[in-house]
User: What shape does this take?
Amino acid sequence: MDDPEVIANSASRLAPVLPLKDVSLFPGASLAVVVSRPQAISAVRLAERCDAMLLALAQRDPDATEIGPQGLHTLGTLGTIREALAVSPLELRLEVDGFARAHARELVGPRLMIAEAVTLPEDDEGDEAGPAMEALARYLHAHADLRAFLEQQRREADAMSWVNLACQHLPITSTARQKLLEASPVERCRKISRGLDALLRKEAAPRPG
Assistant: This one.
C-alpha cells in the first residue's frame, strides 16, 4: 500500500463513489459497465450534475449485493464519465475514463456514498516498462481477441497506459486485480512481466486426462 505521508501531502477532493463488483478501474484506462444498484446510479447522477468525476472503488466481496463503506477497498481510481446511457428504466450503461489513483480518506454512506478522494502521485515506471510491454506483446500474440479489444479501448499510447489497460482486463481474480492497482507503477510492471508469462505457461501446459 502507499505511504501515509504521501497520501497526507496529496491533493484531495470530494467525489461520489462508484462501487464495482468484480472489476477495477485503472488510470489511463477506460471501463464500460452496466450499473443497476440504486447507490451506483445515484453516484453517476450526482457526478453528472457536478464535474462528471467519480471515485471507482472495488468491493471487498464481489458477491455481496448490499455494500456500505466497510465493504469497499479504500484505494481506487478517480475517473470522468465519458458516457451514461439508460438501457432500461433501472440500468445505465456507463463508460468511465480513469486518470488518477486515489485513496478514500473519508467514506460515508450508505445510500449515496461520498469520499474524500486523495490523489496519489504516479512514479515513473523506469526501465520496467520495456519488459512489461514485451510480456504483454507475447500474451496478446496468443490472444487476438483480447488484443483487438484493448486496441479499441485504449485512450493513450504510452507504455504505462497499455500496462494499466491490460491489468484491468486480464483473466485474473478481482483480488489480484486490486493488488495490481495498489502497487506502484514499477511494481505493477514487474508483476505483469512475471504474471503474463506464467499465464502463457499455464495455458500451454497439457491438461490431465
Observations:
- The longest helix spans residues 185-204.
- The chain has a mean pLDDT of 87.
- The chain is about 40% helix and 30% strand.
